[in-house]
TrEMBL record, chains A, B:
Molecular function GO labels: isomerase activity
Keyword Cell wall biogenesis/degradation included in the entry's annotation: no
Source domain of life: Bacteria
Protein name per Swiss-Prot or TrEMBL: Sugar phosphate isomerase/epimerase
Domain Xylose isomerase-like TIM barrel: 44-273
Pfam families to which the protein is assigned, alphabetical: AP_endonuc_2
Keywords annotated in UniProt: Isomerase
InterPro entries assigned to the protein according to its UniProt record, in alphabetical order: IolE/XylAMocC-like, Xyl_isomerase-like_sf, Xyl_isomerase-like_TIM-brl
Signal peptide interval: none
Keyword flag Endoplasmic reticulum: no
Length: 283, 283
């Protein structure tokens, strides 16, 4: 099923994150992407480990696809020393998996506030400390850490890094070859400082990943699985793509949507729809 | 039931917003506050109009209480001219009601993006335009408009003004006697620029209201009714109170919590708990 994905024309930068079509087992996802001429995919640790890291790497490589990101490391805001050590060990494993998959980008979601903790500034510092411990290990294995700011609605339970400016404040303490940031439209669309942050990230060579999802309401309970298909919401997706382009980013444009309504449909149909929406709302 | 609320000691700045105990009819709310020695209350237009604006004003005045805010005006991001005119007319009515209640503060929630609209910067400008039309009318009636930044999770459907900096960027186009801002811990706690914004707001005499609620997860569907009782969440409430104090704010500290679990309980008990939590977590 190998095709020449290098010549896939207007989809040449498109990548689809595995979780967008989690109903598809990895071989079917790979086949679907090849059929459409989509050259990239983003992977998640859980399903990859289930399939086997080496087997997944071979499957993707044989199909001529590129793994644009591995999601995800992070969750290292624990103040308890044992929990912190465990988180760092798990992150080193994530780096190894990223290297095994041949991707240079490990996405980091920093983690929220420990129970009873009300000091978010301090938690952000613990993120920076953990990145300092992890970055050289990752660089030795050819993997760059990509700090992802998550929407402020996740600040307490998933990610104390909420804005691109905050992510850059941490990333810029390290060489750009070691630590970058993720620009994700779902998390940043509301922020009037996002454009300034993208320019700053681009100037420093820090845009490690550009991810797309649309914003739709009402948000579901827990607010995790409410991302919209491209074009279904209020995000100026093309405007964001133009901003990252203007900032000098030439990498993959990865669609990452968590939405049970998409998961309930035929996976190949969702992939085709995603490519069509990408053409219409992003290019 | 009149008591001397001016001498209520450590509760001298406390105000409880009506929606915190929406199970209480206005006379019971007033009685409960007087019993506890809480001198202030924040009112909502709906229940006040049901009770009658003049009757409500008399009830509150006779009890020696102060109406710290009226919630709310705003929702003027419509681009359709008729909708926009209707919103402005409704806001003038809200100003009249505020004046009738004897409060100097009308809280404005700006409104979200109209259906199909992806230009949030433009919507924010329409907010500023509406404030320009409304501010002189309000000033003539002794009412100051208070722009409330709402958490970014409401940016698309309720309030395109998401940060204190954005609220101040609009407010500062007008005299401070006409337009101020609301500092609400629930909406701002995650923002590392909140302290800077509070200092800026205080320096300009712009803090029109200081409101408290705690942040708890998981967020409920629609994310409207998930605010936590003081002390139940991760917000450094005392830290925020110290920031507004340091910025020169000497006004009311208003507790505004929307939470069905509080509404299901005995209202007087919730009021007493709120006063106790205020003593423990805010003072």
């Amino acid at each position: 099923m190998r095709t020449d994905n290098r010549s896939s024309g207007d989809l040449a930068r498109l990548s689809v994150n595995q979780e967008t079509v989690r109903q598809l087992p990895l071989p079917e996802l790979v086949e679907g992407l090849v059929t459409l001429g989509v050259p990239g995919l983003g992977l998640w640790r859980g399903p990859v480990r289930e399939y086997g890291v080496e087997a997944a790497a071979k499957l993707v490589r044989d199909a001529g696809l590129t793994v644009t990101t591995l999601c995800r490391g992070g969750f290292f805001t624990a103040s308890d020393p044992d929990e912190r050590a465990a988180a760092l060990a798990d992150n080193r494993a994530a780096v190894d998996e990223a290297a095994g998959l041949g991707t240079g980008t490990l996405v980091l979601v920093s983690g929220g506030l420990p129970a009873g903790d009300r000091d978010i500034a301090c938690a952000r510092e613990r993120v920076a400390d953990a990145v300092a411990e992890l970055a050289p290990y990752a660089e030795e294995r050819g993997v760059r850490l990509a700090i992802e700011p998550l929407h402020p609605m996740y600040a307490s339970d998933r990610c104390v890094v909420s804005t691109l400016a905050q992510a850059l404040d941490i990333a810029e303490r390290f060489p750009a070859r070691q630590v970058g940031v993720v620009v994700d439209t779902y998390h940043l669309w509301w922020d009037d400082r996002a454009a300034e942050g993208i320019a700053r990230a681009g100037a420093g060579g820090r845009i490690a990943s550009f991810q797309l999802a649309d914003w739709v309401t009402p948000l579901p309970e827990g607010v995790l699985l409410g991302r919209g298909q491209l074009g279904d919401g209020c995000v100026d997706l093309r405007g964001f793509r133009e901003l990252v382009d203007a900032a000098g980013y030439t990498g993959a444009v990865e669609v990452e949507i968590f939405n049970p309504a998409l998961w309930a449909r035929d996976g190949a149909e969702v992939l085709a729809e995603t490519a069509a929406r990408y053409r219409r709302h992003v290019l």
